[in-house]
Amino acid sequence: MTQVMEDAVSEVLSSVVDDVNHAISRNIGGAELLHELLSAPWLRALLQIYECLVEFERSTPTPILPYASGLSHEIMSAIQKVHRPSAEARELYSLLSSPHIQALLSSQDSVAQSDYDPVLPPLPDDMPEDEEAMRVICLVKNNQPLVRRHLFSISHF
Fold this sequence. Notes:
Layout: H1 3-26, H2 30-38, H3 41-59, H4 68-81, H5 87-97, H6 99-112, E1 140-141, E2 144-145
Antiparallel strand pairs: 1-2
Helix pairs in contact: 1-3, 4-5
């Protein structure tokens, strides 16, 4: 959000607080207070802000395909099956098979599937219930644990 937008939102919200404080200090009835608050210009401004936020949320770009790397492999397979591919097809195959493009497509698939966290192994079922609670910290790099839990026990530390 830009500074101008933040200032405008702050101004609307301070107007809300001022109007509510003023209505409370006048000691007017509930129906009249409700009518004044619902007809206040700041309420329309807040609703416009809300509509803009909802529209922004709807228009946020989302990936068209959740499986771009799989599609690239299909395309490369189709190109390999062609007896004499054109120069453009060979160039496309070369581009799609490059490690940078493969990494980019893999990243796109992760974003498309909202797959940001690694899948950690489950805790063992045979843990005694009377044992003190402890926090298990697992470092993972490229879906491989950096420390194998079954090799070390607490007594080694």
